[in-house]
Amino acid sequence: MYLEEFVVGAEFSTGLRQITETDVKTFLDLSLLKNPIFLDDQSAQQMGHPKRILPAPLLISVAMGLCQQRGLFDHMVAVLEFEYVRFQKPSYLGDAVQVMSKVTLARPTKDPKRGLVKLAFELHNQRRESVLEMAAVYLMLRRAR
């Protein structure tokens, strides 16, 4: 989406994406986050979780990927800032997640080819529970005139 397509107050949602064991293994191999609470239920239970949890950076990555699929970042130049990231509750292997986003800022910059967009995101699980909230500012292209 171009800057002009982002209107303050507009809301966007993505489809659901189930996070599989293959997803987790691939992410852990890439990120080197091989913490036992992500690898097996017994280790997670020893830390007070009912079963293994999903790595927080994986959830952020999946959320951003879902937004990319939705077209929100098709004309993004750069991520300028993550204002906050808050995890509301754990997510578990097999959960399905969906992003709800809201435009909170959309304005041109001094460069006539670019503008700023701030999006507030909520990642929900299959029970529609919020598991992650965050906000980020993006530098976006404007439509050619």
CATH architecture: Roll
Measured by DSSP, the beta-strand proportion falls in 35-45%
Helix vs. strand class: alpha+beta
Structurally, the number of domains stands at 1
Distance between the termini: 15 Å
**Total strand count, please?**
6
Percent in helix: 10-25%
CATH top level is Alpha Beta
CATH fold descriptor: Thiol Ester Dehydrase, Chain A
Order of H and E elements: EEHHHHEEEE
Stretches where pLDDT is under 50 for at least 5 consecutive residues are none
The CATH homologous superfamily: Hotdog Thioesterase
What is the general shape? elongated
What Rg, in angstroms, do the CA atoms define?
17 Å
> Strand count, sense and closure of the main sheet?
6 strands, antiparallel
Structure keywords:
alpha+beta, 4 helices, single chain, Thiol Ester Dehydrase, Chain A
How are the secondary structure elements laid out?
Blueprint: E1 11-13, E2 17-18, H1 21-31, H2 36-39, H3 41-46, H4 56-70, E3 76-87, E4 96-108, E5 114-125, E6 130-141
Antiparallel strand pairs: 1-4, 2-4, 3-6, 4-5, 5-6
